[in-house]
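Methods: example folding runs. The two proteins below were folded one after another, and each record is reproduced exactly as written to the output file, sequence line first and structure-token line second.
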Amino acid sequence: MSELQTKYQNAIKFAAKKHADKNQLIPGTNLSYVVHLSNVAMEILIASQKTETFDTEFAIQVALLHDILEDTETTFDELVNEFGEEIAKAILSLTKNSNIPKEKRMDDSLNRIKELKKEVWAVKLADRITNLQVPPEHWSIEKITEYQKQAVQIHNSLKGGNEYLENRLSKKILDYLKYCVTTTE
């Protein structure tokens, strides 16, 4: 197995176990959360083929682990021990800080992401691309609209991070608008 395949396998197994321990599913579905993680990793794999000088091994691991601090009992130190400090810091930047007001969390995370290499930016873009699917039925029109506005914020803030993923996110944002309007019959 190549180094990339080994690192992919190690990261996805670690993440799958941690998310399964919390019985985490993709919101609004009965799909295991590892499907979301692998979709983000797939976006990164394709982007890596379309981007010069891209650290694919690093980005794939970050993609597979990106929600682990926010959604599981995993600690920063545990990530450092398993995957190294650079990956742990990348994942920490992608994790919203629950100690600050909710309305400031996205800006804070985006600012921390922008301090790191462009592959971390790419993971954030890929994450939102994969999240702009049919919204869960229980989401209000206000929540759906806010989610779309956050996608625009991510796109604008991370401009210059990865042209391929920026173009993908831009299209997804436009497609998602159909969920942001209510229809009356």
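Second run, written to the same file directly after the first:
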Amino acid sequence: MDAVIRKWGNSLAIRLPVSVMSEARLSLEQPVSITAQEGRIIIEPAQRVEYSLDALVAGITAKNLHDEVSFGAPVGNEAL
């Protein structure tokens, strides 16, 4: 199947037919990874990274822990 690259705002775009999307098992609004390799453009489903709060907290060390920052006294209707 042939397509034409067109201008879309300040970027370039190509329309993907539904049949190609179905064959590639991709869907509308799905995050994808785009790479160029040996003169080809490769579009793949993005690897979804799952984070857990326990794993993130376990990564806190004395070396990467930041000091408290003061932004000054309240100037409006901030809840304290």
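Comment on the second run: The first strand starts at residue 6 and ends at 8.
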